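User: I'm putting together a teaching handout on how sequence relates to shape, and I'd like one worked example. Could you take Lysophospholipase from Sphingomonas taxi, show the sequence you're using, and then write out its predicted structure as tokens right after it?

Assistant: Happy to. First the sequence, then the structure tokens directly below it.
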Amino acid sequence: MTDQAELRRDLPADSRLTQWQAPDGWRHRRFDWPHPDARGRILVQGGRADIVEKFLETIRHLHARRWSVTAFDWRGQGGSGRLAADPHVGHAASFDAWVGDLTAFWRDWTRAGEGPAVLLGHSMGGHLALRAMLDGGVVPDAAVLVSPMIGVRSPLGARAGRAVAWAMTKIGDPARPAWTVRPGKASAGHRQQRLTHSLDRYADEAFWYARDPSLLLGPPSWAWVLEAFDSGARLQADPRLAALAVPMLMLVADADRLVDARAAVRLAARLPRVELVRFGAESAHEILREDDAVRRRAFDAIDAFLDRLR
């Protein structure tokens, strides 16, 4: 294993994994890496089925630039328990609990520290960040949204895709998986192409899940798919977007095959204080886990954006 891979796969020696308890008692797996001379703090939140470890390389970059970094696994995934009887299904009847968790965590976290507080959300994390900001429960000094899940991609289109998801929740268990993962290189290759062009970074997942299989989460439930369509539609139609004063940086991969990049670009046009950076065919969904050239451009944009907070 190369030194670079070791940095992506090992927790920093002076970081810590603990638990955070939501107001309803739900326990979440939490990561903290304080900086001894911090310029501020960043909360890094991943997407559906993500775990803290997927962002270690991003966390190390931010920490090297004197940010204290925190993250937690969303309720129902990673080390934060499950919401379905089948532990491999990513279930949610509503995203409200996740917005509530983020709001409560943000309140506790900001009370416990000083300096600028920044929220970085990837994919579903970006969706939930926007909802929490619109509701007023999360008011960061700045926000970075990476491949935000404003709308989900469907080969049928949003309207027909939503209709199928609704029907599937009515004719069977809404918590059953929306698709079946078939073992083999063909299935793995299909997933890798949707996530990242970097084979090394994609391989990191297998390392983490081999080390701790309990962290692995598989396909979403039909209920999750339906809620993703519905919550995305409400988000795109929300009139409060035009008054959202938080400075934002949005990174969008136009060739994204998991979320609707066009919906993200349309939403960005309605935000009063947003910088939009778009990537072409060189980037799949996971911009921050892409090949080095894409990552360098992404982090140059993030660093310049955050430097302006001074």
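A couple of points you could highlight for students: The domain at 3-307 is CATH 3.40.50.1820 (Rossmann fold). The mean pLDDT is 95.
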